[in-house]
Amino acid sequence: MNLAAYACDPGRSRGRRHPEAPAPTRTEYQRDRDRIVHSTAFRRLVYKTQVFLNHEGDLFRTRLTHSLEVAQLARSVARSLALNEDLVEAIALAHDLGHTPFGHAGQDSLDECMKGHGGFEHNLQSLRVVDELEERYPGFNGLNLTFETREGILKHCSRSNAQRIEAAEPGGVGRRFLDRTQPGLEAQLCNLADEIAYNAHDIDDGVRSGLITMEQLQAVDLFQRFHDEAMREHPQLQGRRVLYESIRRMLSAQVYDLIEATSAALAAAAPASADEARRGAALVGFSAAMRERSAVLKTFLLHNLYRHPQVVATTGQARRVVRELFAAYLAQPDQMPADFAAREHRPRAVADYIAGMTDRFAAREHERLTGQRLLA
C-alpha cells in the first residue's frame, strides 16, 4: 500500500488503550477491522433500521448494508488519495455500532428518556460499544481498537461529553472537540462517504417504497441532470434501470468531485504528516457547487421521505416502544439480563441494553412486557 505523507501509517499509530503485541500478519488497522466484523454489535446491524423499519421489507437498507456501502465508497476514494484504506474501512464498518433500534426515532426517544442521566447520542454510544460493552477478550472490556479508528468513530461530540472523555483519557479522542482541531483525513473521508451513501440509497429505498416518485426527483438538480443524461444516451431505458443508472451516475459524480476538490485542498495545504493535517481546516470535502447541490438533495429527502406521514406514523410507534421499554426496565431491572440488572447506574444500563437491541427484538420485548403489539 503506497501511502501519502499525510495518511495515517499503522506503524506510527498512537496505539491502543491496553498495549498488545503486534499481529504477525496484519497491520494495526487490519486488526481493528477484523475485530469489528467479528463483534456482536456488528452482526446486530443487519436487523437495525436505516429509514424503513426492519419488518417493512426485505430489500430496504439496514444499518449493516449501509455500513458496507460506506466502506466501499470510502475505500475507493482512499485509494485515489493515497490514504489508508484499511483504516477507512474499519471506521466505516464501526461508525453505526451504537445506533439504537428504529433508527433516529429510537435515538431521539432514548435521548429523551436519558435527560438528567447524561443523555444519549449514537456516535458516543458507538465509541462506548468498542471501548466498554463488547465482551470478547480476557484482559479488557471492548475491542481495544487503535486511537485512529476510535477517533473516526467519534465524529460528533458535545463539549460536556468531550470534557468527560478527556478527564478519563487525557489527550485522547475527546481532545479535538476541545481544541477545535480536525480528526485524521481517513476519518474526514468516512464522514463524507456516509453522506454520499445515505443520500443515494435513500433515493432508491424511497422510490421502491412508493413514498417518493421519479417525477418528484426531477425537481432536484443533482438527480435530474444525471437522469436526463442517462436518457439521452439510452433512450430505450425503462423501469428500475432508469433509477439505478441515474443514481450510479450521481454517485460517480460526487465521488470524482470529492477526489478532485480534496486533492486540490491537499496540494494547497501540503501537510507533511497526518498530525499536521489535523491541525488546520478540514481538507476532505466537495467543491462549493457540489456541496450546494448535495444540500438541496438532503433537504428534499428530509421533507419528502424522512417526514413523510407514513414514515412519521411508524416512527411515532417506534418512539413509544423505546419509551415504554425504558420505563419498564427502570422499574423492573430483573427483566433485563443479570449483568445489566446488576449495574450501579441503572438508567445507563437500561440505555445500553435498549441501544443494543435489533428492531424485531425490541418489538418482541415491548409486547412481552406491555401486552401490546405496536409494530406488526
From TrEMBL:
Gene Ontology biological process terms from the UniProt entry: dGTP catabolic process
Which controlled-vocabulary keywords does the entry list? Hydrolase
Please give the Gene3D superfamilies that the UniProt record associates with this protein. Answer: Hypothetical protein af1432 (1.10.3210.10)
Entry's Gene Ontology molecular function annotations: dGTPase activity
All copies of the HD domain together span: 63-199
Where is the stretch described as Disordered? 1-29
Superkingdom as given in the UniProt entry: Bacteria
PANTHER family reported in the protein's UniProt record: DEOXYGUANOSINETRIPHOSPHATE TRIPHOSPHOHYDROLASE-LIKE PROTEIN, DEOXYNUCLEOSIDE TRIPHOSPHATE TRIPHOSPHOHYDROLASE
Q: Which HAMAP family match?
A: dGTPase_type2
Family note = Belongs to the dGTPase family. Type 2 subfamily.
Please give the name of this protein.
Deoxyguanosinetriphosphate triphosphohydrolase-like protein
Give the species this sequence originates from. Ramlibacter lithotrophicus
Lineage at the top is: Bacteria, Pseudomonadati, Pseudomonadota, Betaproteobacteria, Burkholderiales
